[in-house]
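Pasting as-is:
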Amino acid sequence: MKKWNRVEQIAFGAFLFWSAAGLIFTLLRITPESVARWPVPNWLAGFVDLCLETGDPILILLAFANTHLHAARQWTPAAARRWALIVCAVAFAVETLGACTGFPFGSYRYTDHFGPLLGSVPFTIPLAWHVVVTNALFVVRGMERYLSRAVEAAIVGVVCAGYDFVLEPFATRAKQYWIWSSGQPPLQNYLAWFVVSALLVGFFAPTHATRFPKDCRPLFILGLTLLIFAAGS
């Protein structure tokens, strides 16, 4: 496998560092209140507070950057940019429709805890869609490179719906990034995740070519973010 360039190395190192910090903070249940009692300089306590407040949006930004770099390596930079634009645009449109009408996910609303809002949707949400769908696609292609497009799309849809199933308790109960009108996600939320993800892959995913199927980044990105969400639920 071709060696990663310097930008890829720095980006992945930053993602691993931030993921490790997030996992430690989550497992140790570190909060701003507990930090205030630490015998540390004020600047250090302030830095930790900032990390706690912005940790998840930064995690998504780092995951997005690494996902895009990986896609550019597997396809071409131009193909990766087109794919990212399509996924983010579709995700933003569908999430805006969902937040305003309750279709197709169910009735919910976003808070501003997950980053600044673009209309009704935090800017991090389309990026998160790109992270989940793209890495799920590469994980599936890394396991089996010669699936039909329909089968590939269906499996990716299942992986994405399963990812959201693990994410929901963390995002809604622990962090309140979004709030369901019914108090919990309805079944149609997971069905919508499956359908939207499968349609994105089925109609818009670039060629089946995967030049470096043994690249570890998709598994690390999905696995570490899932681990943090599960630990914080």
